[in-house]
Amino acid sequence: MSATPQSAVPGNLARLVHWIMAAMILGLFALGSALEEFPRGSARDFGMMLHQSFGLLFVALLLVRLGVRPTAATTGSAFGRWSARAMHAALYALMFATPLAGLGNQWARGRASDFFGMVMLPSPLAPDRVLAKMFGEIHETAASAILVLAGIHALAALWHHFVRRDDVLRNMLPGNGRG
């Protein structure tokens, strides 16, 4: 296995937040998709409250992740470094855009957002069906795009591990003893 520069090795906090966010993306997508099937009423309202709450929590973790993100690796081809930076930039942009569009959708419907039943974020917008539909479509498209890019991201990590035989994947796994 080739060595990875220490500056590119994530610390334990970055690694932990990465995997929590990965699990949250899958959970939020599954819950958001399931909400479409819930009958209108208290179960759907509860599911929506959870979806919104975890979405807002996701944004907070995303901000933490940006603060503890390791520097980019300086090894590999120029194309490899460029594609890794482009992938991460696209993922981060979508990870911000998705919950913000979801919040915009809720607010354009004239509804407050509920954070775990403790804090209500009132809508600053007047109800606007066209705007709500636009935000809803952005939210759904961006969420689907995150899954596609995350899948490509995972395949790239596996390619590094099995084809390049470097430490990229190993450095992101829990308990590797670094950081």
Key features?
two-stranded antiparallel sheet; 69% helix; 2 strands; mainly alpha; Fumarate Reductase Cytochrome B subunit; elongated; disordered N terminus; 179 residues
Describe it for me?
With 179 residues, the protein is mainly α. It has a single domain (6-172), classed as Transmembrane di-heme cytochromes, Chain C (Fumarate Reductase Cytochrome B subunit). The protein has five helices and two strands. The protein has helices spanning 12-35, 42-68, 78-108, 129-164, 168-172; strands at residues 113-115, 119-121. A two-stranded antiparallel ribbon has the order 1-2. A hairpin with a 3-residue loop joins β1 and β2. α1 (12-35) packs antiparallel against α2 (42-68), α2 packs antiparallel against α3 (78-108) and α3 runs antiparallel to α4. Residues 1-7 have low confidence and may be disordered.
